Amino acid sequence: MPAKTINDIVALCKRRGFIFTGSEIYGGLGGAYDYGPYGVELMRNLRDAWWNAMIYSRNDVEGLDAAQISNRLMWKYSGHEGGFSDPLVECKKCGARMRQDKMADPTKCDNCGSAEISEPRAYQLMMGLSIGATADGAINAYLRPETATTTYVNFKNVLDARPHKLPFGIAQMGKAFRNEISPRGFVFRMREFEQAEMQYFVNPAEDEKYFNMWRDARLAWWTDVLGIPASSLRITPHDKLAHYAKAAVDIEYEFPDGFDEVEGIHNRQDFDLGSHTKGQKEFNIQANVMENKDSTVKLSYSDPQSGENFIPFVIETAMGLNRAMLAVMHNAYTDEDLGDGKSRLVLKLRPKLAPVKAAVIPLARNVPELLEIATNIENDLRKLAIGRIELENSGNIGKNYRRHDEIGTPVCITVDHQTIEDGTVTLRLRDTMEQRRVPVADVPSAVLEIINA
Question: At 388, which CATH number?
Answer without folding.
Answer: 3.40.50.800
